[in-house]
Design a protein that fits this description.
Elements: E1 2-3, E2 6-9, E3 13-16, E4 22-25, H1 29-32, H2 37-42, E5 50-53, E6 59-66, E7 71-77, E8 80-81, E9 86-88, E10 93-98, H3 101-104, E11 119-122, E12 128-135, E13 150-155, H4 157-160, H5 171-179, E14 182-187, H6 196-204, E15 210-214, H7 225-241, E16 248-251, H8 257-260, H9 265-284, E17 290-293, H10 295-298, H11 314-329
Parallel strand pairs: 13-14, 13-15, 15-16, 16-17
Antiparallel strand pairs: 1-2, 2-5, 3-4, 4-12, 5-11, 6-10, 6-12, 7-8, 7-9, 7-11
Helix pairs in contact: 5-11, 6-7, 7-9
Length: 333
Amino acid sequence: MICENVEMHNIAEVKKLWNGSLQMQRVPENVRKFLNEGAQLRSLSSANSEIRFICDSPRAKISLSSANGDDVFHVAYGNFISPASYPIIGSPITYEFEIPENIRCLKPGRHYAFDPRVFRILLPRKNIVFFKAEGENLRPPELSLLPKKRYLAYGTSITEGGAATRPHLAYAAQTARALGMDLINLGMSGSCHCEPEMAEYIAGRDDWDIATLCLSVNMMGDFTTDEFRKRVTYFVNTVAGSNIKRPVICITMFPYFVGLSSNHLKEEEKASAFRQILREAAAACPYKNVQAAEGPELLDTPDGLSFDLIHPNDYGMKRIAENLTLILKSLII
């Protein structure tokens, strides 16, 4: 969305606070209020969201804070990501950035998904508050400076980027980069419950070209197999039926401690059933733009998991992205 003099990417709505600053959320309020409590909170996190702008000089300033704890953010100039990280805390801090000379002097002729003139503030998985951006004729980037197509990812904390050491290392972000596409990340950490309102919201968006639905280890605890089947069937059919020209890939649960550790044997049957239910939902969908992808084939090595044996580490995120990219590339027109 365009807000004031910047583009807020992967942000659906902002709330104006008492001091004039803007708190961002990835899902609009008329959808968020129907989600489970956890998803309502996670919708306020800025996972793989960005503040983007261009200006007539190589320097710009931005002022940000976090409403729910300290973290760091990163910056990229087009596709070129700085190795530096910048603290973001409860009170606003103003940072000044300058596009490096080597990037300003790139030889013409090579195409980049993001034009190197675009400032990209890569936000963390926190509730970020925007105060202002300053620069010479600072403005949102034109569409011609951004990727032409968009990849939408819905899922759990794994989709949101949990355990990735930087936002751009989440599997969804790496997949989007490999495809030369922009990312819409609707991962909901601990709260991907496949609500019908979320399905209808995703289906009603006209700004994505391909989607993955990673459904859903978050439902293993409180949902029966019948409840899971009902929700995922509606979710898949609703999203796929919104536009049969848009491919939809249903990802079964990635490998995790259920199936890997001997102290979770009772849950293995349910995990196997959940994977099979999603396969069947994809196969039975009346629309031909749907297919299933196997989570254990995408994350194809156990040492791709972090110490909790559920969230992929950076290597695991890379393996998922590499394998998923091969599938998605074959579907992109």
